[in-house]
Amino acid sequence: MTDTRRRVKVYTLNEDRQWDDRGTGHVSSGYVERLKGMSLLVRAESDGSLLLESKINPNTAYQKQQDTLIVWSEAENYDLALSFQEKAGCDEIWEKICQVQGKDPSVDITQDLVDESEEERFDDMSSPGLELPSCELSRLEEIAELVASSLPSPLRREKLALALENEGYIKKLLELFHVCEDLENIEGLHHLYEIIKGIFLLNRTALFEVMFSEECIMDVIGCLEYDPALSQPRKHREFLTKTAKFKEVIPISDPELKQKIHQTYRVQYIQDMVLPTPSVFEENMLSTLHSFIFFNKVEIVGMLQEDEKFLTDLFAQLTDEATDEEKRQELVNFLKEFCAFSQTLQPQNRDAFFKTLSNMGILPALEVILGMDDTQVRSAATDIFSYLVEYNPSMVREFVMQEAQQNDDVSKKLTEQKITNKDILLINLIIEHMICDTDPELGGAVQLMGLLRTLVDPENMLATANKTEKTEFLGFFYKHCMHVLTAPLLANTTEDKPSKDDFQTAQLLALVLELLTFCVEHHTYHIKNYIINKDILRRVLVLMASKHAFLALCALRFKRKIIGLKDEFYNRYIMKSFLFEPVVKAFLNNGSRYNLMNSAIIEMFEFIRVEDIKSLTAHVVENYWKALEDVDYVQTFKGLKLRFEQQRERQDNPKLDRPISGIYIQLDNAKEKKQNTDMTVRLIFYEDDMEDGEAVVSPSDKTKNDDDIMDPISKFMERKKLKESEEKEVLLKTNLSGRQSPSFKLSLSSGTKTTLSSQSPATNLPGSPGSPGSPGSPGSPGSIPKSTSQTAAITTKRSVHRGTKNMLHGTG
């Protein structure tokens, strides 16, 4: 039988930082003569071929994860992992590895613990430092081994870094690099690669400052070209010096700033392109390198921000019509990268940065750039605009409102001179670019729609003592911009079906509808007035006939959002224009298909039924019942019809229009006087927990039909009439016989209390509402002994305050 304990999968880490499965086999450990040491062997379970042969190196850091995984990194940046089928097998191999390295098997990382006695550790700490071999060609291998052996131990890493700093060792190594290149000493160059890579992993800012200095950085990059894993060296220096060109779009007078830009570009290149992909153990060892680049960018932004002449020239050339297209594209790309760098700033510094750009006139400049024909320039300008909107939408809103005011003033003067003002507002330019996006996937349009959504979102609008940004900006937007946004929608819905129904047009209209739906949800009277006055909903519902299901669903979602507001202004508009017709038509055309369209339409009608929107219920039943009456796989439409009939019944009988939450009949047995019983019957209509004419009902009773609720009331009223007729007969008999009968008091409390008194016989008649012992009364619990006190109560089936649910109950 196969030993499943040692069954493993072998994984290697690729350049994309993903684990590749190399096969399944069985692992063992043993001495391998060729490797001169204990090794891990994995043979494939399919054919017995060797999947892995790895020497257990005393200095390699092995890591145990999740009880069934062992991970380690071998030479040449080659990461490996064994995934065990069983925990017992993983533990067994882990013990072998720890045994070879002399570690305790209870640890999860073999190199985390320094195997030194306290005395040795004290000696190491008190010793002056690590002694480096002399910097000679013959000792490069020794230096490389020293660096590699120091990396696993934090203490040795610290000592190595101090030794490299104090002795100016890095510059001596770079001199050897030139010697090795001149002699074409490939072995020495490979050792230098390992040494320089190890120095990077020491993660020391002081060392980076030496390595990234103007005189050293290109030699450091040269050392990293000779990766032993590659058959041919890379040509990084050739790319940086000949291919990559530094362009000063605006001349930079500060030499320190210029040097800082060069340095940052090259260090970023080292991080992204030159250094090998860090292994799972090296990722945190390059944190100082990330920080070095980060703080360089902060310095560059600060120095440029302080150079007023530079920024003034930049914006002057951007907006100058005489600037050629190529130059303008370079200026815009620079400004885009400048804004991208600003994302590294602290909040207070970012505030100052965008305030500076605003004072320099970045928004008017963007308006000019967005009006140009060059798509690349416009794309870069859109990215810059997105930085501004995401950072401070109020700043953008304030600019466009001021611009609109200025345009209005200019337009008045031009109108007097009979000249047309052709200036386009910045926000309308954004909308036009969204509408005119030529990308088949509408990537730019999606980005611009998100920016517009941010600008019209009331949640990020400010309210001050003097003015409300929400009121002012939304008033401006609906007056100057909304007609531009809805133009493609109105142009495409002039008939009963969309004029253009290609995929790109459908995508664009879906974006417009998404923004309009957002407006319905977050704006109040502005969007309501616009929809009703421009008949927008009717035009939107034309899109229900689109062949693209996603567009039809967007149109339906727009209407559903409007209905969800339960606003009678919207409801009257929908009924007056018969705007359920396109929805019903789409529902019927969809047939019996069980899809998203079917479910969405049914959900909308179900919402109307559950929320009891009376006007819409009556409208749907009166106009579309014949088309919907055969739909019986859901009870939604029959439920709507029932709601409608209940409404009509209440209108026909105004007394039933007010819901009654309960009827109580209480019989109190007074003291016995002779053989007569003084019975008091109180009929109480109460309105506890009623709101807007609706009685509070428990969730369990909400589904009961109103017919069931009204049935006990009608029965009670019939019994009351019968009782009154019987009472007349009894009164006549009583007057003749002279016998005294108990009095019945009938009290109705429903807003105003009404008390009715009548004389009734001593013996309760069958069918009388006050006769709990009468076998003829509905739901009678039985006869009540005359000698005991009696209490009975009758309630409707509608649930009442705090759980009163039974229509009829009593004690007997």
What do these coordinates show?
This protein has 812 residues and is α+β, with helices and mostly antiparallel strands. Among the domains are: 4-101, Pleckstrin-homology domain (PH domain)/Phosphotyrosine-binding domain (PTB) (PH-domain like, Roll), CATH 2.30.29.30; 139-244, no CATH class; 392-412 and 420-550, no CATH class; 566-652, no CATH class. The protein is built from 31 helices and 13 strands. Strands 4-3-2-1-7-6-5 form a seven-stranded antiparallel β-sheet, covered by helices on one side. The protein has a two-stranded antiparallel ribbon with strand order 8-9. The protein starts with 6 loop residues before the first strand and ends with a strand.
Tag the structure with descriptive keywords.
7-stranded antiparallel beta sheet, disordered C terminus, single chain, two-stranded antiparallel ribbon, PH-domain like, alpha+beta, 812 residues, 31 helices
List the helices and strands and how they pair.
Layout: E1 7-13, E2 19-32, E3 37-44, E4 50-55, E5 62-65, E6 69-74, E7 78-84, H1 87-101, H2 118-126, H3 140-150, H4 154-166, H5 169-183, H6 186-201, H7 205-211, H8 217-223, H9 236-243, H10 255-274, H11 287-306, H12 308-319, H13 325-342, H14 347-360, H15 362-370, H16 375-391, H17 393-416, H18 426-435, H19 443-455, H20 469-480, H21 482-492, H22 503-522, H23 525-534, H24 536-541, H25 549-564, H26 568-576, H27 581-590, H28 596-610, H29 614-628, H30 636-652, E8 663-669, E9 679-685, H31 706-737, E10 743-750, E11 752-759, E12 792-794, E13 808-810
Antiparallel strand pairs: 1-2, 1-7, 2-3, 3-4, 5-6, 6-7, 8-9, 10-11, 12-13
Helix pairs in contact: 3-6, 5-6, 10-11, 13-16, 15-16, 15-18, 16-17, 16-19, 17-20, 18-19, 19-22, 22-25, 25-28, 28-30, 29-30
